[in-house]
Amino acid sequence: QVQLAESGGGSVQAGGSLRLSCAASGYTGSWMYMGWFRQAPGKEREQVAIRYTRSAYTYYADSVKGRFTISQDIAKNTVYLQMNSLKPEDTAMYYCAADRGSNLKYWGQGTQVTVSS
To answer: What's the rounded mean pLDDT across residues 101-109?
Structure first.
């Protein structure tokens, strides 16, 4: 069974940094992409950063450009999200996602990021 395990969340003050990790297991093939989504209470889940495996194309939400960096270790089936200059509006549950293609997406259980002002 495919599992995505996130880690690295926590509570920081505005301007601080966190690094999230997501390790995928249970699948030996290649992913179309791995990436990060987030959801704040009462808000819809939004895309934060996506990395397409074959092309290495990256997508960033406008709100995080210049502050967040996504990276991927294909051999380890792991994706990272380096988050710098964190803002209170970044507070959310962050979810790792991996897509095998054909709209078959797997989700992690989430890791909480809380940024205080």
So the answer is: 91
